[in-house]
Amino acid sequence: MSHILRHLHNTNTNTFAQRHIINMTALGGGTGSGLGALLLERLAADYPKKSKLCYTVFPSPRIGTSVVEPYNTLLGCHDLLEFADVVSVLDNEALYGICQKNLNVHAPTYSNLNRLICQVISSMTASIRFQGALNVDLSEFQTNLVPYPRIHFMLTSFAPIVSKEKAMREKQSVQDITRQVFEPSSQLAYCNPANGRFMACCLLYRGDVVPQDIHEAIAKVRSSGRAKFVDWCPTGFKCGINSQPMLPVPGSDIAKVKRSVCMVFTRIAHKFDLMYSKRAYVHWYVGEGLEEGEFSEAREDLCALEKDYEEVGAESVETDFSKEEEDEY
């Protein structure tokens, strides 16, 4: 750890006006959750004024790579809640689905998945590297998408995700890509937004895009009911325009297109409960120095986070019922 921190310190010293730290981890394994959490904790202590943005691969709902990944994930989430400022949620199952259905890659490898993640990260950080009519800085990104300090877990989506063969014959207007980015097939985490509500949404456009087209596309999304927002945040949308078109990552399966959009919006425990009720595999963690009480603490923290999200959504549901009753009378 001292070697890693020394290297980071040297990099930081030689960097001009560094304001953000981007951390990429996977929570399913011991290295990603353990070392990743420790590194994040040390970064929060050494660089308290710099924003910590995490791109985190969570375990998939139906695909598992480790027996103890529920433990690793819950313990990792505990540190993400405390030390990260923004967490972009990803999962391999959704990435596999995108590669197979959208890009015609029948047997995706980790290289295919990593290139897709890199494509999204590149779009989210494009404003740092290129000029644009309406660039969204990473600080604005955080300010507009984190309504409360604990509610900083984001669902990420990208469009168009098309193979090079399809890109030649498919129309990709601003309205098309805006509609696509709200579809579950474009999301990088397995989730159905129709079961909840948006708190905030940031649309980052790249390429040949003008503000008028964006306003029309967003109006169409609103009228179609694809995006339902909580009542206390009626505006909902933050838009950015970068004039530099998307450039595929070397070796990527995704096609180069004239315009693209990346969307990030704000939105495990059952497997953990099943295993922890029998205290299965706990002795391995205790043997490495972890106290058993930390399991319960992490579980309670995640339970509190779930309730925070439920309360935010419940306020809007109650308001909807009130409006319906008023209409009836």
Give keywords.
single chain; seven-stranded mixed sheet; 13 helices; globular; disordered C terminus
Question: Could you describe the 3D structure shown?
Answer:
- The protein is α/β, with parallel strands linked by helices and 329 residues long.
- 48% of the residues lie in helices and 15% in strands.
- It has helices spanning 2-13, 30-46, 69-83, 92-101, 110-124, 126-129, 138-145, 164-167, 174-181, 211-224, 269-276, 282-287, 293-328, and strands spanning 20-26, 51-58, 86-91, 153-159, 201-207, 237-242, 259-266.
- Strands 1-2-3-4-7-5-6 form a seven-stranded mixed β-sheet, sandwiched between helices.
- The longest helix has 36 residues, at 293-328.
- The protein is globular.
- The termini are far apart.
- 33% of the residues are buried.
Percent of residues in beta strands: 5-15%
Largest β sheet strand count, sense and barrel closure: 7 strands, mixed
Give the topology string: H per helix, E per strand: HEHEHEHHHHEHHEHEEHHH
Report how far the terminal alpha carbons are from each other: 65 Å
Uncertain spans: 321-329
